[in-house]
Amino acid sequence: MARKTAHLISHSHWDREWYMPYESHHYLLTELMNSLLDTLAQDERYRHFHLDGQTIILEDYLQVHPEKRELLEKYITDGRIAIGPWYVLQDEFLTSSEANVRNLLIGHQDAKRYGTICKIGYFPDSFGNMGQAPQLLKQADIHVAAFGRGVKPTGFDNQVADYESSEYESPYSEMYWEAPDGSKVLGILFANWYSNGNEVPVDPEEAKKFWDKKLADAEKYSSTGELLFMNGCDHQPVQTDLGDALETARKLYPDVDFVHSDFTQYMEALQRKVPSHLVTITGELRSQHTDGWGTLVNTASARIYLKQFNQLGQTLLERGAEPLAALAALAGAKAYPHELLTYAWKTLMQNHPHDSICGCSVDEVHREMVGRFDKSRHMAQAIIQESLQAIAGQIDTANNFSWQADSIPFAVFNTAGRERSGTVSVELIVAKRYFKEGPNPAALAEQMGLMPLELDKGQLLDDRGQAIAAKVEDLGAAFGYELPKDKFRQPYMSRKIRLTFEAPAVPALGYRSFAWHPCADADHSGQAVPSALRLLENGMANEHVSVTFREDGAYSLTNLKNGHTFHELGIFESCGDIGNEYVFRQPEGDIALTTRGVPAKITLVENEACRITYEIVHDWAIPAGADERLEIERNAMVPFRLRQAQRSNQRVPLRIKTRISLENSAQGLSVSTSFDNQAKDHRLRVLFPTGLESTTHYADSIFEAAQRNNVPAAEWINPSNAQHQQAFVSINDEVNGLTIANKGLNEYEVLRDGKNTIAVTLLRAVGELGDWGVFPTPEAQCLGEQTVEYAVFPHLGDLFESGAYEQAYGFQIPWFHIQTGIQFGSLPTTYTPLSWQGDGLALSAFKLSEQKDLIIRWYNLRHQSAKLDVELHVPSSAAYRSDVLERRHDGLALHGGRLSLEAGKAEIVTLAISDSPENDNSNSFIDSIKED
């Protein structure tokens, strides 16, 4: 009989914050690390410790013990402490595609400073795993993934269901995991969880009982004699007597080699014996073939306000700070702020661990998260403003003969991947006086406020002299200040106006300039292009769509390209929820309430050339919460599936105020819904019956539009089939499609109601953490004012051929703008740094690397190859294939700034652009820019 090896890997799965506040966990972390360093020094038999795959642990520990850095470096360099490859152990589905990449990139950068990186794709407790993980890992030279969830049923309190092997995707704990593009890694499932070697007994009698069970459990799933035992668990202290425990085990089981191992040693041994008949699992691992109760997907709707903060923070970094800073650097206007961006990303990612962004911690944790979101956002906004000012200072407005000396120019920036048009609101200073110019601030304010403005005589022109219809508002006097780089702050009083208009055809990753003419003369006045918007008897229309409203506030949306109409959109649904932050559980027999048939007040509140908006108000009443049984059941730790609580008979008001806007060039509706939630223990959703015949749908996920089944697998018994989304969910038949976009609304469900209704969760209010103890979370009831945003796009054909995915991505991206002056400069009034074409491709990153290469990333949403054509409008002499770690690989032919390449099916394509010599990262086209 072949000998077996028991590989014990010591670790402590470190939830940075969870059932206690961050600093409480932080305190325990210092104890853990001090104990670990002492044990490594005192016991040579204690060889290795896996530091949970996240480098932030080092930062947190060194905050308290900076004097231990040198000792840490020694043990890391010696291979006794394994670090990386991530910065934090994130929730993969609730953080964006680029956030997952930055997590891997920054984790590598931090680990590299200590001399070594653990090349294991470590996902011990992620609540499901993204389908593109194998491709991301392979691009980072990682060929093995270790994960705990997504394949075998795993429930609360780390309980792994004892299913027969035929009832989940792989009969073994070892399998191959393949991404949609075909990238494949060896997958290691913690089939007996990541604590199956925890607290190994030293006493022979106890050890015999322990190992008889543990060895049998591991052998049940292992495809080889290399057995993995994870010596640790959540916040588990170091087992300081492990050396003695292993000596006991060796005496009891002479036919088993007990090794204090690490992942490198274990993987080398395993790969020599892996059988040829391992199963290959593909794509997303979301526990599809389980009963559906342990997937933890409803963390996507716990504390939705956190998801909204996160979506905004990610967007400002990915679609604001990074591309605008890159554009400023490429224009020679300002150095790229690598360190500041890394700081902003790290601060944001400190909210990305799975117990943080999932909203499944105690209230103190999530209060602190709000402060981190603010800090990251403020830094991103500072970078954005500095970059906009730097770029604006280079725009040549003096040579535009359509504008006059008294014109007030400004630029509107589009950082989406495609050219777009849309409604923007811009505040302009039309007069300014500094404090030093007047007797006192109050007198200046009065002067500014009394200054006459003839707004009706003004006109907005684009940079080609075309008049643009605009709504003009006088904002009165306002205080402001400047912070010059060479002198003290400069406060002033100003007179401001607001222009609201449609910015047409603003190029991707670029800008277009406009100018306000305070008093247009006969030679410079002209008629604006007529608007396509028009009012209907009970709605509105443009050249693409029309919408009509019913008395109950639901609406019908017609695609004017073929006349197809979607009916009864926008109905709200409220039902009870007696679950917790992890799991939605509707009370037994509870019938959801809806606004169908509830009279609504419908008012036209905006009718401009660029946008029409209706406001719909529902004055509704819903149950105040669950009945008194819920509190009793919570305190008695009655499992959520066995609870008998119902909704209360008491009602509270719920006023839902919805604003539905149609813009002049828009291909769908933009919607904002606000409400003051005074009810507990419930879920609020908005419904979109599609009426389309389809068995599948698409959901925006990490670097893919994942195709998912509308009806779950046969093993699924959970009445709810909620799923994760990033920017959108979409259904189509052979002719028509409907795509619902969102901002930070990460949970949806396609209902099995015969209409393929898309239900998007707007709020889920619960009162406890759940899982292994009793942890009340009253703030998870999300009482108070809430505002959510989403959009509705009808289209012909599927998500890809219609381009609806670009509309949905664009909905999440804000417009940026900056006022400038009449000046000479090196940049034209309309500009983009690159043009590109590629069907089914989405652009996700435009930034500079630490090597000062321009990094551009796309991903192919289709499962077929596509041609990518790129034309660069920036200095460039060399182009390379790159990866998620921003390294140069194969050189690409670059002719006059043009290049072409093939993007494989579902491939993530990254380019590195430089004007430095091949294989020399020491120089680039921005080296000549003076460092700030």
TrEMBL record:
One of its GO terms (biological process) is mannose metabolic process. Residues 299-373 form the Glycoside hydrolase family 38 central domain. The keyword NAD does not apply. It comes from the Bacteria. InterPro entries: Gal_mutarotase_sf_dom, GH38_beta-1, GH38_C, Glyco_hydro/deAcase_b/a-brl, Glyco_hydro_38_C, Glyco_hydro_38_cen, Glyco_hydro_38_cen_sf, Glyco_hydro_38_N. Keywords: Glycosidase, Hydrolase, Metal-binding. The keyword tRNA processing does not apply. GO terms for molecular function: alpha-mannosidase activity; carbohydrate binding; metal ion binding. Gene3D superfamilies: 2.60.40.2210, 2.60.40.2220, Glycoside hydrolase 38, N terminal domain, Glycoside hydrolase family 38, central domain, Golgi alpha-mannosidase II, domain 4. Belongs to the glycosyl hydrolase 38 family. This is Alpha-mannosidase. It comes from Paenibacillus antibioticophila.
